[in-house]
Amino acid sequence: MARLFRSYGAADLHLFAVGLVTSVLGRFANLLPPLVLGVAIDAVFTQRAPYRLPLVPPEWIPTGTDAQLWLSAGLIVVAFLVSVTFGWAQGVSLSLFSNRVQHRVRTDAYRATQRLDMAFFDEERTGELLSVLEGDVRNLRAFLNGTVSGAIQLVVTVVGIAALLFYLNAQLALVTLVAVPLLGAFTLWFMRTVRPRYRALRASVGGLNSRLETNIQGIEVIKSTGTETYEDDRVTDASWAYYLRTWDVARLEYLYQPGMDLLAGVAFATTFVLGGYWLVVGPPPGFSGTLLPGEFVTFLFMTQRFVDPLAGLGRIVDSYENARASGERIFGLMDRPSAVADSDGEVPLDPDSVRGRVEYDAVDFRYGDDPDGDLVLHDLSFVAEPGETVAFVGPTGAGKSTAAKLLLRLYDPVDGTVRLDGRDVRDYRARDLRRAVGYVSQDVFLFDGTVAENVRYGRFDATDDEVREACVAAEADRFVRELPDGYDTRVGERGVKLSGGQRQRIAIARALLQDPAVLVLDEATSAVDTATEVAIQRALDRLTEGRTTVTIAHRLSTVRDADGILVLEGGRVVERGTHDDLVDEGGLYATLWAVQIGETDRLPPALLERIERAAVEGGSDD
Q1: Which domains are delineated in the chain?
Q2: pTM higher than 0.70, yes or no?
Q3: Which residues make Cβ contacts (< 8 Å) with residue 15, sequence separation at least 6?
Q4: pLDDT band at 544; cut points 50, 70, 90
């Protein structure tokens, strides 16, 4: 909470100060009417005491009862007007303050999230992140907007009322205020007990959000497989877990709040009984002096105003603990280190000056932080000279896509070095490196915008003509012009309004528009039909001339002309060479090639049996 104010509230502390000051003054103004009423009863109506107000010189007060009556009425009206005015000022200033802090925290948390490495996103659920960036940030705003001022008002009310009660009658004030330490002890117990429950509640919110978001994104799979009932049960389980966490907090609140009300009510009832006895019979045993009717009325009003804030202490504590749990999650996200971070001695990289020499030198890689975990890549080494095309092929899970992503520093190797133009890619600033390397993934993502906006993404200054040229090169221009609004057609969330092949060609156009020195194609033609594949391959052949290209393919026909082919199996390079050389060797590549061109009759019976067994077990690519 201290960090929240220090890091994100400092720029608008003047607004916070205005909110607190007006809150305090408004609370003081609220205490004036019952005080004036009690004084008026004793001085104007019963005339049993002189008209006296705290901190007001006697000579300022008129002597006539009529004048004193009008003075009382005027003070009460002014107090209500001041209270309303200060209440408005408090609401506006604290609302501005809390919303500005909310904006800064959310955008800063998002920036921090964007800069985390891909390993974080591999492990973290999207719904959990959205819960932090939206729900937890909103909890902080609610805390700043109402809870802080409420806590200040409570302190001011308790101190102010205690001072007035002691001013009126110190003996009766002691009876009324004896509940304060009891309420404080009860609140301390509640805070310590509810804190871990709130942490668990915030975590369950993320779990529920993740389940809902996953199911909405996968609705096509759910419907096509008829698994609505299964998913109903899974959402029910997640919602029930959230319900249990909510009830765990709620039942503690339902114990705390009535307990606070009971203690505060006992204090009020005790004050009423003792004060009433004092007026009717005389001083109770152990008490002395007189109690005027007006003082007693003021005591009852003040005690009630004293009881209500104390009874509301539970809501303040509740909001604070909720905000504290949210703050831990938000700042925990912000403080999480990235495994892929720019080095202290980063080297400027001008994308236009990149030659495109790519070198992998004894690269090892594993996912996760476990140093004893299984390696995904083992001792991967190769060199692609400027303008050459190197292809990774092999069974699914062999590490092909992972190897390509190391070039963009989406991950860093655990051992060995990846170099671009002779320098370790970790020496470059990650943003500059990724501008120099174009990337087309097999899992194409399009934003909910127009075709032109998606092609232009990453090169926002590109002209309409440049966008069209890129689409022509990617064999996308024809189908784009046939869309309802051409290049201004909205593609829908994740590009759902386009076919897989269309999305793939838009992604290729986006990469080509950047005109990178190095091009990474990860199954870039995996979602297109044979005719479209031929067209795209023809365009890629022209465009990769003079450009270093690292390509990954299951369709070996797309890499026949590669300068070098690396066959990966189990994360290791088991074969390397040109297409013709690898076919002649009769190894794994030759096997894959024979399967794809339908010449399995040439394969040995043992190898055919292996292929059939792998297909039955789900490893058809192997």
Answers
A1: 2-334 (1.20.1560.10), 351-444+519-585 (3.40.50.300)
A2: no
A3: 93, 94, 96, 97, 100
A4: confident
